[in-house]
């Protein structure tokens, strides 16, 4: 395999070592295949013989609405109103395959598809070897790290800044995007949005997001508000963003697709429903889920410092269990693949 200048190169090498060959690894949504034979996927795969290909998606796959006007196309799978673009493309190649996707739940609608997060499989092998210092002391209530501007991130960062800026550390790169027609428009308070817009970046001393001391921010904060890459999706998914507070023995509130907390539990982690309401995880309406997340943030924000200290002490068994589970996550994914 030719090396390429991308962190995912090591991930591909990891899969090549741990999965049964031949494998195909997809990083982005399916585009039209190139015309030249040398780089045409179908041309490459037709030479592998009648072997079963393990097709890994590093990113959540592309789910699209069905075209009701398209009377000639036969959509594959068992979804009522949408279809999986990548799945249909792979089927068109005429190969025997198993597709592994990081969207848990999608596999219930398609044959030869299983949940397995290829990137987290690789990343967990790195995290298992890391050792970080933890502490029970904290200065802030919330740490909310954000980079790319997305509607759910803006809504939560704006809520934190407008109401709890003195007890929060928030990072954000604001872009002038019009979200007025988005599903969360009613959850994005105009006044809060303007406050956020005029105070970017929010990290102390305007330190660049790429260079500030992230580990200290996890350790100095009681709770992390994790704003995952995906939110307005119907299938569970999380990334290393969720594993970061776990590494530093901190609880988190998770802004992610529905049932993502359940996915974490399926993988052996424990969450925090003993201490606050996590019913937001079972809410499929994205606006309602966002509102429930704000309510949880409000409840935590209004706890006294001593109450939070007591809760953090009470959480130690769960927090330490989760740290140990990161070390076991690689083997969990190995078991999923073997099945």
List the helices and strands and how they pair.
Layout: H1 8-18, E1 23-26, H2 41-45, E2 52-57, E3 63-65, E4 82-84, H3 85-92, E5 96-101, E6 113-115, H4 118-127, E7 140-144, H5 151-164, E8 168-170, H6 190-197, H7 214-220, E9 221-227, H8 240-247, E10 252-255, H9 260-266, H10 286-301, H11 305-314, H12 316-338
Parallel strand pairs: 1-2, 2-5, 5-6, 7-8, 7-9, 9-10
Antiparallel strand pairs: 3-4
Tell me what the structure shows:
The structure is a single chain. Strand 7, helix 5 (about 150-165) and strand 8 form a beta-alpha-beta unit. By secondary structure, the protein is α/β, with parallel strands linked by helices. The strands form three sheets. The chain has a four-stranded parallel sheet, sandwiched between helices. A four-stranded parallel sheet has the order 8-7-9-10, with helices on both faces. It folds into two domains: about 10-115, no CATH class; about 140-325, Rossmann fold. Helix content is about 35%, strand content about 15%. It has helices spanning about 10-20, 40-45, 85-90, 120-125, 150-165, 190-195, 215-220, 240-245, 260-265, 285-300, 305-315, 315-339; strands at about 25, 50-55, 65, 80-85, 95-100, 115, 140-145, 170, 220-225, 250-255.
